Amino acid sequence: MKRKSKYNVAVVGAGVVGIEMLRCLRSRNFPVQELRVLARSAREIHVDGIAYQVQAISPESFEGIDIALFAGTEGEKGAAVTFAPEAVKRGAVVIDNGADFRMDPDVPLVVPEVNARDIKKHKGIIANPNCSTVQMVVALWPIYKKVGLKRVIVTTLQASSGAGKSAVEQLKEELVAISEGGYNNLHVKTSNRSMPQQLGFNVFPQIGGFAENDFTSEEWKLVKETHKIMHNAKIKISATTVRVPVRTGHSEAVYIETSKPIESAHVRALLAQSAGIIVQDDPQTNAYPMPKDVEGKGEVFVGRIRKDPFVKNGMWLWIVADNLLKGAALNAVQIAEELIQ
After folding, report:
1. CA separation (Å) from 86 to 94, 119, 158?
2. Number of structural domains the chain divides into
3. Are residues 165 and 310 in the same domain?
């Protein structure tokens, strides 16, 4: 991309991720010349007291745009498939938060703290990984570089906002209905049902549809995306993804087996000095990351770092991040920042 002092930027989608993209562009002082917000229908939205005029998306919307950030949360499924090529045709570089291009061999899949160099390989489109993948690879990358990784077993505890605004509303309505109906009545039906199961006062182990070997699509994303980002398909990765009654902030219990021995204290020190990571790990004072504390923060938080006493080179980590920020909007803006360097 030709270096400029300011850039014309389009944000595609005015849902929860699109709104966070607008916030990130503003808070990080991204050098924006012109900003266009595109969605299915024209309207005005307000974000933090600022009015944005949303334009109805069309191929012509991308005329003169340098960078197009696709939020992936609004519009018809696969909207990026329709409009990303149109944006590229008109000279824009697309950074897509959706799943359409992530596994395309010609499209780099990027987490800047891990594989920023892959941005140079783009042919007009750069993919943003799945939110649960992003936070995991940020935490695992320093360990992988130091001692290697043989195996990763992860259970995710994913917030309702990862399924979009309607899922957050479903959770809210369910909690209100249960509270008003008495806590002995834990089974409720609300008008808003965007998730496959009740989430209020409940958890369920399904995110995405069931796919190969009875793993869900979300679980396979953690496997395949991590392999692509780390450029190593030999790491054995297995996942269970769980939806939990949290508004925002994904948590992950991650078990790893390293190729070489490393002590817990060394891992803490290694992660504490790594970009984009905050270590909160003092069990004696109940200090560890929690989703309520990381909401609105851009770093990946890691705690409960401890060795497996029964398996050589086995270790546990607890990883938490704001899925709308580092898991989506912020990572996309960070890619854009690397792109213009």
Report:
1. 10, 20, 33
2. 2
3. yes
Reported as a single tens digit per residue, the pLDDT across 198-224 is 999 999 999 999 999 999 999 999 999
| Claim: this prediction has a pTM higher than 0.90 | yes
CA–chain centroid gap for 156, Å, is 12
Which of 227, 231, 250, 266 is the catalytic position?
250
Q: What does the alpha-carbon distance between residue 11 and residue 200 come to, in Å, rounded to a whole number?
A: 32
Whether 231 is catalytic: no
One domain for residues 87 and 160: no
The CATH number of the domain where 315 resides is what? 3.30.360.10
Tell me which residue range forms the domain holding 244.
Answer: 133-323
Question: Is 152:146 a contact under the CB 8 Å cutoff?
Answer: no
Task: Name the active-site residue from 24, 46, 122, 131.
Answer: 131
Q: Tens of pLDDT along 264-312?
A: 999 999 999 999 999 999 999 999 999 999 999 999 999 999 999 999 9
What's the distance, CA 146 to chain centroid? 25
250 is catalytic: yes
